[in-house]
Amino acid sequence: LLFMMTAQNSSVVLVTRYTRAGVDPTNLYVINDLVMITEIGKLVMAAALEHNTTNGQLIRSIRENIFERPLDFLRILIPSLLYLVQNS
Fold first, then answer.
1. Are 82 and 74 in contact (CB under 8 A)?
2. What is the DSSP string of 25-59?
3. What is the spatial distance between Cα 40 and Cα 38, in angstroms, rounded to a whole number?
4. Most buried by CB count within 10 Å: which residue of 24, 30, 54, 64?
5. What is the DSSP letter of 68?
6. Is the pTM of this model over 0.85?
7. How far apart are CA 65 and CA 21, in angstroms?
8. Angle between helices 2-20 and 31-53 (to 10 degrees)
């Protein structure tokens, strides 16, 4: 997981530099769009790893670890929302 996240973050930096270099400022994309796409990619990657780890029981794992433990979910939600606001 650590290797995959490191590779993903490094590739985001390289692709961002490549796609924004030499482009007219009026045609640049909004960085918030890039952050959202990056986070969706992380979600897909994490879901695939969880699916593999739980032997195909992804839905059961989500139910047990998120919906049946709302306090733990809130502990994770607060830093996530702060991260979202910080990058907006």
1. no
2. GGGPPPHHHHHHHHHHHHHHHHHHHHHHHTTT-HH
3. 5
4. 54
5. S
6. no
7. 42
8. 160
